[in-house]
Specification:
Endonuclease III, domain 1, mainly alpha, 11 helices, 211 residues, Endonuclease Iii, domain 2
Length: 211
């Protein structure tokens, strides 16, 4: 099957099986999503949501985050791992948002990626879910499953992002991420996927090499 047709069929199946998907991180303010995504590096969304449930109550404003004690913040976010860097980056980012952007979240990947601890994935999460700007978010599920589907031959997240931008229609950029996360959690699990239960099996070159 030609790649463009395979992409079209895969997206159709994803829309059928995961019609309602949204951000898996809990937040009510734009900076909360930014900080939650920073915490999500090398950590599950479920654990992050447990931590932020208390964190966002303890620090109810951006000013509270900016003036927080580094040592105390480290203890607050310790369960997410890499807590020293994450605590430092959250406090620094809060200060930069206040000082350089008047507390307003910039709707630009160039500005967002200048914030400490913010790479393209985190920036794209903010652009997609705060500003509804079409953005391709490459997390571990998207990286792994996109490779299996033959949508990319790369392993570098930024290269994968650009590969997907070329083959996915723009109206699917945001939902592709949330749908693939759902699929990765339910069926295409690592390290043992449930291929016999997978509705994408016939389109997957890993299962059907001639496809």
């Amino acid at each position: 099957m030609r790649k463009n047709l395979r992409v079209k069929e895969v997206l159709k199946k994803l829309d059928e099986h995961y019609p309602e998907t949204g951000c898996y991180l809990n937040y009510t303010r734009d900076y909360e999503l930014l900080f939650a995504t920073i915490l999500a590096a090398q950590c599950t969304d479920d654990r992050v949501n447990i931590v932020t449930n208390s964190l966002f109550k303890k620090y109810p404003t951006l000013e509270d985050f900016a003036s927080a004690s580094v040592a105390e913040m480290e203890e607050d976010v310790r369960p997410t791992g890499f807590y020293r860097n994450k605590a430092k980056n959250i406090i620094s980012s809060a200060n930069i948002l206040l000082i350089e952007h008047n507390g307003i979240m910039p709707a630009s990947i160039e500005y967002l990626t200048k914030l400490p601890g913010v790479g393209r994935k985190t920036a794209n999460v903010v652009l997609a879910h705060i500003f509804d700007i079409p953005s391709v978010i490459v997390d571990t599920h998207v990286k792994r499953i996109s490779y299996k589907l033959g949508f990319t031959k790369n392993t570098d997240p930024e290269k994968i992002e650009y590969d997907l931008m070329k083959i996915l229609p723009k109206d699917h950029w945001i939902r592709y991420n949330t749908q693939i996360i759902a699929h990765g959690r339910e069926i295409c699990k690592a390290p043992i996927p449930k291929c016999v239960k997978c509705f994408l099996e016939e389109y997957c070159p890993k299962v059907n090499p001639n496809n």
